[in-house]
Amino acid sequence: MKNKYISAPLSLPVMIAALMLSTAACSEPTAVDTDNTKQSNSATATQTDKAMNTDEPEFTTKAVATFSEPWAMTTLPKTADGSLKLLVTQKSGELFVVDTQTGTKTKVTGVPEVAYGGQGGLGDVILSPDFATSNTIYLSHAEAGSGADSNKYGAKVIKATLTDLDTGKPSLKNISTIWQQNKKIDGQGHYSHRLLFSPDGRYLYISSGDRQEKEPAQDMSLNLGKIIRLYPDGTIPDDNPYISNNDISAQFWSTGHRNVLGMAFDESGRLWANEMGPRGGDEYNLITKGNNYGWPVVSNGRNYSGIDIPDHDTRPEFEPPKVSWTPVISPSSLSIYTSGSQNDFPAWQGDALMSGLSSQALIVVDMDAAGNANERYRYDMGARIRNVLTVEGQVWLLEDGDEARLLQLLPQ
Fold this sequence. Notes:
- The protein is an all-beta fold.
- It has two helices and 24 strands.
- A hairpin with a 7-residue loop joins strand 8 and strand 9.
- It is globular.
């Protein structure tokens, strides 16, 4: 296994030892799943002949900066000097502008207080489609309740103006709430709160986790365990699938989700999402308007107690995953590779790149025109990977935890 602090070429095959372990599909490393007896009844996550081709890309890694519990990153528009800059969040509540040429980190002031603990804290960050003129960004974070909700928590999405980027003292101003989970829950897991704009910039998608409560994913009175679709100002589009209900469900685009930590549109404009299963049964789903993905009624995994959960094929009214992983990979983000101006990895064109926590891997998945998907490559990174981002054909990774490195992948 690659030493965490040495840049080295990464080997091609899936590590056999990793497939002999089944680690809990959880973004925290404390829960370990040793049950690997249940197998997927959908597309399996084994390497295919295509994945074993000798043209599988190899790369080394270049460490650019380090962080304490980073969660997400996005790119800022190129500056006049051509330096690529990223926005990077840390769970404890910090937002940084990072110069990828120098590794310099500049802290952004004005970030609101977050509920830091467990899987909670500052979450995702994305730019508004009109960022070039508005300087608006969107952030998700965990929020603590008060009064009757004291010691309870929920996810929240805000938008803000990112000012003074050219002064070296960036700040957030004009903060407003766009969306929040409509019930605060004990515990600090499964917020999801991944953010994504549609390719045309008209719609904001938000993944809302089940908060480890299971049943809310099928409860139409709660916006937990759902994928949400809104306009950028937080209002509800009139073509959402449940708009006629005239209640909270008007927000919903899809239902029956557990913990969606990655969403991305492919080159054909299809929405994909990866999702953590329980003991086994991590999922890669093609997200379609109004579909129900079955959690917690069906899953290709087991409960942590060991009690079985019916597989997707027992309930055809629920949408099955296109790929299911047992043992789990613990998918934590998703980015679709497009060549751009750099085109470092042309063999990945149109493929989905997933970061893996328990699997400590970068997973490459291809999708065909019919909506089928299959794991193509898996790279052992020797560390939990929290986030993957493709920018103009370059690939950037964020490790998880303390002293987590921002890595650029350099093709060989």
